[in-house]
Structure formats: C-alpha cells, structure tokens
Write a structure and sequence with these properties.
This protein has helices spanning 22-32, 49-59, 71-77, 83-88, 107-118, 136-147, 160-170, 226-233, 242-248, 250-257, 265-272, and strands spanning 8-14, 37-43, 63-66, 80-81, 93-97, 100-104, 129-132, 153-156, 174-177, 187-190, 214-217, 237-239. It is α/β, with parallel strands linked by helices. Helix 5 packs across helix 6 (136-147) and helix 5 (107-118) crosses helix 9.
Length: 278
C-alpha cells in the first residue's frame, strides 16, 4: 500500500499490542472505502504513554484506540472527555483535533450494538442484567446498560469488595450478589476471562434463567465459549464477544476517516477467521 503525503493516520496504543486484531479490521474498512490512510499497532510502555500520545498528535495522527494497560492513563492525558468516559473513568478512543486531545469510551457502545445486531428487538429495559466480574469491562458494560434503560444491574464477583467499589463508583440501581440471581434476569453477561482458551471454564447453572433471557460473553477466543454452547443447548439466545470488538471500533473510524463503517459477516470472517470455533 502506497500512501500520499495527505494520508490519514491512526493506530492502537497498547503494551503489548502485537496480538491486537484492530489493525486487521480497520485495514479492511480502509480498503473497502478506498481511503488514503493507515491504521498501525503502536506498542508503548506505560511510562512513555503520555509523551507518546502527544507525539502522535504532533506527527499528524488523527487519533488512536487505546487498549490494556493504558485506558486509565488515556483518561488522564485528555484535554476533554465525554460524559460516558467520565463515568467509566477510562478512555479507549482518542481524537486529536485543533491541538486538543479528546477522549471517549466506546466499549459499552460496542457491547450494546453487538447485542442489538445479534438479537433484533432486544431492549436493555427488558429486565435486570447479571454481570459476572467487576473489572474494566464490567464497568463499561454496566454504565452502557444503565444509560440504555436497564432497570437493575447485579454484579457477581469472587471478590465482593471489588464489586461493591464498582457499584459505588457507577451509582444508580447497581447491587452486588455472591451468587448469580438468574431466576428473573433478562441478561447474563460474562465479563471475566473464564472460558477463554487456556483458562478454566466458567461454571454457572443456566437452568434458572427465563426462556427469553439473553446470554452474552465478551470472550471471543474461542468464538463459541462453553457458556455460549450451554446457552444454545438450553434454547437461549447467545451473543459472542467478537462483535463487541468490531462495533466498538466504529466511532473511532468515523472520527478519523470520515466514514461510518459496517459490521457484517465478511468483516467477522476476516477478523476472526483464525480464531478457534470452540
């Protein structure tokens, strides 16, 4: 690929970052739309993060995505963050504009858009959501669900104190439980690494879930986790994690390259083609 002197540049900041699939998905979008631009991996050590971000802006980059372990540092380096990122306390999308660094968090957006695409007609207001885990992903999804009208979010974590701290930080109708209260839940979400390739499986009895409940897993390696397989075996609607990754990338691409891209089967196959199915 040959770029012109006016090429639009963006990338992903992480440490490490070689494993990221973001260059692959943004690269396909750039090719689809014939855009003169590039999206590159940017491995940056934590102690160099703030200087690296300012350096990218000075070099003419349009912005960048941010992944582990930099999302909280990205929040701190921004001149301005949107309301959702402020509530989450973390930023995953940077936009450089007129000498300012603008931050947003699209993780929750990606989660919701993935469910809406996979389960047409789904509404966050349908009933309580039970989230397994209390890390950064749980926080992003909790905020997104509450802002979308979810009446209650229940956090279940092996360290209750961490879940309680998250509930206090987010505010709203968020409670903590030691075991998943599935009997009346409309949505169950695994935000932990359990079930990921190389990790122990997530052990949870799905029998109490209502027949109309949705089960989502943010893990996407493998594409079909044991939790999703168990949900489908029960006849429940199941939503995998790859779509969250793809949808969370859309707002950044739109800001940097001027096109709102589409998440479709071709993109899913291209980005996830070498991921184990189960």
């Amino acid at each position: 690929m040959i770029l012109s002197g006016k090429a639009r540049l963006a990338g992903i900041l992480g440490w490490p970052v070689a494993h990221s699939r973001s260059p692959r998905l943004h690269g396909l979008w750039l090719q689809r739309h014939g855009i003169d631009g590039a999206y590159v991996p940017l491995p940056v050590a934590p102690e160099a993060f703030a200087d690296a971000v300012r350096g990218l802006a000075a070099l003419g980059f349009r912005g960048a995505n941010v992944t582990i372990p930099h999302k909280e540092a990205a929040f701190a380096v921004c001149d301005e963050v949107d309301a959702t990122a402020r509530r989450m306390g973390a930023v995953n999308t940077l936009v450089f504009r007129e000498g300012r660094i603008l931050g947003s968090n699209t993780d929750g957006f990606g989660f919701l858009e993935n469910i809406r695409q996979q389960v047409p007609g789904w509404q966050a207001a349908a009933g309580p959501a039970v989230l397994l885990g209390a890390g950064g992903s749980a926080r992003a999804i909790t905020v997104a669900l509450l802002e979308a009208g979810c009446p209650q979010v229940v956090l279940v974590n092996r360290t209750p104190a961490r879940a309680e701290a998250l509930a206090r930080a987010v505010g709203g109708p968020v409670t903590v439980a030691t075991t998943p209260p599935l009997a009346g839940a409309a949505l169950l979400v695994n935000t932990t690494s359990l079930g990921m390739q190389g990790q122990p499986p997530l052990e949870v009895d799905l029998a109490p879930l209502p027949a109309q409940a949705v089960v989502a897993d943010i893990v996407y390696v493998p594409l079909e986790t044991p939790l999703l397989a168990a949900a489908r075996a029960r006849g429940l609607r199941a939503v995998g994690g790859l779509g969250m990754l793809l949808h969370q990338a859309r707002p950044g691409f739109s800001h940097w390259f001027g096109v709102d891209p589409v998440v479709d089967a071709e993109l899913e196959a291209f980005v996830g083609g070498d991921i184990p199915q189960s």
